[in-house]
Amino acid sequence: MDIVVERDLDVRLMLSPEHSLPVPARLTYRAKDPYAAHIAFHIGSGAPVAWTFARELLIEGVSRPCGEGDVRVWPVKVQGRDVICLALSSPDGDALLETSAAGVCAWLERTLRAVPQGRECEVLSLDTALAELLTGGPGHDVRLRDPEPSDESGESSDPAGSTP
C-alpha cells in the first residue's frame, strides 16, 4: 500500500506574543510508515527542516495538550480561531509554531481513512517481515550469530577474522 497524504500549511513561527513570521510547511503521511507524521518547514534555505513524530501525538493534540520532550502539541483559541500550537526542541534551539486547527484536522481525517487508528500494525505486516528476516528470506543476507564470540562462550576467536 503506497498511499501518501499531504497538506500544505500556513504556519506562524511565534517570536513573541506580538510578533510572528510566516513559515510554509507541508504535513506528510505515508501508509507504509503508519505510525509517523512528517512535517517539513520551508525556511528559505536549500533544504527544508524536517521533523518526524508520532501521528498519535497530533491526533491527541488537536483536542488536548500532549507530548513531552522534543515535541509538544496543544489546541488554543486565538482571536476566536481554533489553532494548534506545536513546540519543537532540539540541540539547535526551540520553536513555537501555530497553525489552523482546521487544516491539521482535515489532514488527520484523510490519514485516518488511509490507515485507521489502531490498525497501523496490520499495514506493517510485522509477522511476515520478521519471518523473512529470521529465515533469510527474499533480499536478506542475515547472520544470527556474534561475529566475535565473548570469552564466556568457550569459543575462541580467529585472529585472522575468518569465520567457518
Description:
The structure is a single chain. The chain is α+β, with helices and mostly antiparallel strands and 164 residues long. 22% of the residues lie in helices and 37% in strands. It has helices at residues 55-61, 101-114, 120-124, 126-135, and strands spanning 4-14, 20-30, 36-41, 49-54, 71-78, 81-90, 93-100.
Task: Give short descriptive properties of this protein.
164 residues, alpha+beta, seven-stranded antiparallel sheet
Quick synopsis:
This protein is an alpha+beta fold and 164 residues long. It is built from four helices and seven strands, in the order ββββαβββααα.
Layout: helices, strands, pairs:
Blueprint: E1 4-14, E2 20-30, E3 36-41, E4 49-54, H1 55-61, E5 71-78, E6 81-90, E7 93-100, H2 101-114, H3 120-124, H4 126-135
